[in-house]
Give the backbone structure.
Amino acid sequence: MHNGSLKRLDLIHSRHVMLEIALLGTFEAKLDGIPIDGLKIRRANRLLALLILESNRSVHRQWIEMVLETSYDGLRQAESTLRAALGDDRWRIKASNNSLFLDMTDVRVDVLEFEQLTAKQDMDSLQQAIRIYRGGLLKDWDGAWIVSRREELQESYLDALQQVVRIAVQDEDYEKAATLLRRFTQTFPRMDSGWAQLIEVYFLAGLHENAQSTFDSYMRALELRGADERRVLTPSRRIAAIIGRYANSPENGSATKPGVPSSDAVALSSDIIALASHFEPVNGAVPLSSPFYIARSEDEIALRAVAPQTSFVLIKGPKQVGKTSLLARLLQQSREKQARVLYTAWQNTPQSEMVDATAFLAGVASQICDQLGLDVSPREHFSDLRPPTRNFERFLQRQVFPAIDGWIVWGIDEADRLFECPFKDDIFGMMRSWHNERSLDPNTPWQRLTVLLSYATDAYLIHNINQSPFNVGYPIELSDFTYDQVAELNRLHGEPIKTKEELRRLFAFVGGHPYLLRRSFLEIGLRQSDVSMVEAEGRMARGFFRDHLERLRISLLRDADLTNALRRWLQDGAKPRPEEFVRLHAAGIVRGDDAADMHIRCQLYAHYLAQALQ
């Protein structure tokens, strides 16, 4: 046996082995610094990457077969190869109920480190994240499961880059700004905003020759892009304006004197900062400080509903319509009203805590202790002689409530993650009992607790609706943006869409869908383009909406009956049954009051689904 293989086996049997995985750029896998030869096999490395990207949950084998486009036998072979490559099938890859789960103990993944750093938002962390980002996620691979996450990571990278560039320009550290922007243009040569900012920074630094050579490089990139898209492309309005300004400047060809910025330099610096301020990632919650948040009529109702006398507020809506963003604002209002706020995101619950009710509730209790700074071990207060729900209630009553004075607001995001679990009825039944206790006993500590539940899936998956909080809470169902709200969003983005006619075209194409609209404005601004570009991208197989659309398709394919009902309607006009309409509406695919009034949510969905469900 090869010496490297013997060394790896010795390390494996010591049980403390560091598995290092690089998913940014080119796939790499090492065990304690030694490359894993067995993971050069396509099926095995793709299975490992998929399990890592789904590392907070157990993944059903049938779903893996569909996502990786492989057969039952192909997946089994990939599993066998992967187990052999990792060296120990007892602890890395776990199988249960025909599902797979990767044990992430002693696993280091660049993607996960990148996400942790960008979440911190301080300058040191953002600069570390920029260094880690070696390129797009698995840049040489294809597949919807990669594309969706790749887009999210790209936006986080761009946001980090813009923040650091903005600070560098404010500090007049033009060399640092230029270094970062050169990397931006190399990584994303199709984004005109990066070229524009780099040219501006060179002018600010007095490096006019560098600015001109950068413009020449931009024109070459534009020519290549035009050839690829089979159309003639001209420089963006922003870049043309920059070059025009300096072509007519009396300072053209001479360096700006250090410490004495020209009026053009001051204007350029302001332009860079303003351009960066119009950039904000569109995946995930809209930050509390964001200038781009649009308040809907539901916001005002929800803000009034969150009060001490309310037991549950239910925030419902399809994916990416702003539930988490609204939840964040409700929690912030609660803080301002002197409530003690707790927050748990059940979507991020580790799979190891989803095995049964005891593990799940102990994990939730541990998160609460961390947020409150309680030096308590929940497991020590959980008895095997009591049901797990009773253990959790006693823990809240005896450890948590005595530590908090006054009103408590607990925000639970992605509550429908629990709908897939066999113990869901126990958990939601326990929560429903808290509402009942408030009615029966004016002195119960549950009087002090208000729970905000955010969820996308209909609660019909709960078997006993009388044991559910979803029919006693105050419901808030989020709607799409109106045309007037879209016009306001355009204004907040600096009016990249100039006419009402174009704005109505965008509204027809993506509807009032919050994510699709914000993504459209972001791309129009970054590419210095217009609505025609959005429409063209939306009809391209690899356009910038593909991550969202593929996620929609994969989610739909999980339910064969619903997929067939939608296909029949699109192809033959056969109306779905009422219960199918409710589920399609809840998924955000259709709109209307009932099946007779049903229509596709927007033109983009109509075009994509007609092709995808042929």
The chain has 25 helices and 14 strands. The chain has a mean pLDDT of 83.
